[in-house]
Structure formats: structure tokens, C-alpha cells
């Protein structure tokens, strides 16, 4: 991706004008931090859908990341009430990325994070594209590595929690590299 002069200023300076003009994306990545549970208090990297979904126009300091039930979110969600005004964590598979995004949107979700269903995937980002149905979605849709999604879900299960608390998006340009707490299972 080629970033123009205005784009570089957005990367270097966090100006409200840049946010209004370009949303809160940084290059092709968007970052979020898990605040709770504490054992996965890391900054995670996700990639936005290529040609559908919205962008983040605001930063959520604390919002719930709710694993969808069923996890693939290809139809009615049994925990849809908990997804309303929150962000859903969904697993890849069963239907298109756009279909999952629309299901979460129909349940009132503010965004969807779709993790790869390959739990050993710790480095390959899938490009989420339109499914050629001419449908649209307005909420942001992000792709998360399978290992990251698995570790978040596993931590929630171990603690008996129905959701994680996250901050999204996170401006990583202001964080020194040595303080960038990325998951230890992810190597760059």
C-alpha cells in the first residue's frame, strides 16, 4: 500500500482532522488491547475487510468483546442480546465474512472481529472480501489470527467469563517498541 503525504501525517500525528478524513486505520492494520482478563492483556493486530464494512470513527476505551454463540455466527445468535452495542468475536467458516458481519450488525453489534478457524495460524492474515451478493454492511469487520482468537476464547473459558474488555482501536505509533505488549506466541 502506498501512503500519500496526508496519510504519513496521520501515521505520525494523531490529529482529529486525520481521524475525520481517514477513520482510525493505521496502514492495513488495526490494533486493539485486551484489558481483561489480565492473562491476555496484550495488543493484538487485526486487518480490516478489504471491500465491505465500516471504519472506526471513534475510540472505545472499554467495550466488551463477546464470543458469538454459535461461534461461526452464520444465523441467529443465542447470545445476541449481549452483542448489542458491543463487539462480537466470531470464528471463520460456515458462511462468508460478509454474512457474519451482517448477522452481528443485525444483532446491534458495533463491530465484528473474525478469527481464523485454524488455531495454529499465528502469522497469515486472510484478505476478507465481498461475497458477490451485492449486500452491504456498515459496521467494521476485522480479521484476527487464529492463534490470537483461540487464546482469547481459551482465557475466557478458563476464567468463566462471558466476554473480554478491550480498547479499540489503539494508536501504536505513540507506544515505544519495547513497551508494545504483543502476544508472546506471535513472532514478527
From TrEMBL:
Species: Pipistrellus kuhlii
Record's signal peptide: 1-21
Top-rank taxon, per record: Eukaryota
Gene3D superfamilies assigned to the protein according to its UniProt record, in alphabetical order: 3.50.30.30
Keywords, comma-separated and alphabetical: Glycoprotein, Hydrolase, Protease, Secreted, Signal
TM segment ranges: none
Database matches in SUPFAM superfamilies: PA domain (SSF52025)
PA domain: residues covered: 65-149
Presence of keyword Glycoprotein: yes
Its job: Plays a role in the modulation of physical activity and adiposity.
GO biological process: proteolysis
Record protein name field: Protease-associated domain-containing protein 1
GO molecular function: peptidase activity
Localization in the cell: Secreted
A GO cellular-component term linked to this record: extracellular region
Amino acid at each position: 500500500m502506498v501512503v500519500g503525504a496526508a496519510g504519513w501525517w496521520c501515521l505520525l500525528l494523531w490529529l482529529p482532522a486525520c481521524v475525520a478524513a481517514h477513520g482510525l486505520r493505521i496502514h492495513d492494520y488495526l490494533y486493539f488491547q485486551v484489558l481483561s482478563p489480565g492473562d491476555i492483556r496484550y495488543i493484538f493486530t487485526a486487518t480490516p475487510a478489504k471491500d465491505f464494512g465500516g471504519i472506526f470513527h471513534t475510540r472505545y476505551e472499554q467495550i466488551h468483546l463477546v464470543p458469538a454463540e454459535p461461534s461461526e455466527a452464520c444465523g441467529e445468535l443465542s447470545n445476541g442480546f449481549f452483542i448489542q452495542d458491543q463487539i462480537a468475536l466470531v470464528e471463520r467458516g460456515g458462511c462468508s465474512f460478509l454474512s457474519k458481519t451482517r448477522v452481528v450488525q443485525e444483532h446491534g453489534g458495533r463491530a465484528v472481529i473474525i478469527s481464523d478457524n485454524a488455531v495454529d495460524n499465528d502469522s497469515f492474515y486472510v484478505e476478507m472480501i465481498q461475497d458477490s451478493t451485492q449486500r452491504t454492511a456498515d459496521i467494521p469487520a476485522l480479521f484476527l489470527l487464529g492463534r490470537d482468537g483461540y487464546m482469547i476464547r481459551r482465557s475466557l473459558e478458563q476464567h468463566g467469563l462471558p466476554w473480554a474488555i478491550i480498547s479499540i482501536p489503539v494508536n501504536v505509533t505513540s507506544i515505544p517498541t519495547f513497551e508494545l505488549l504483543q502476544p508472546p506466541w506471535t513472532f514478527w
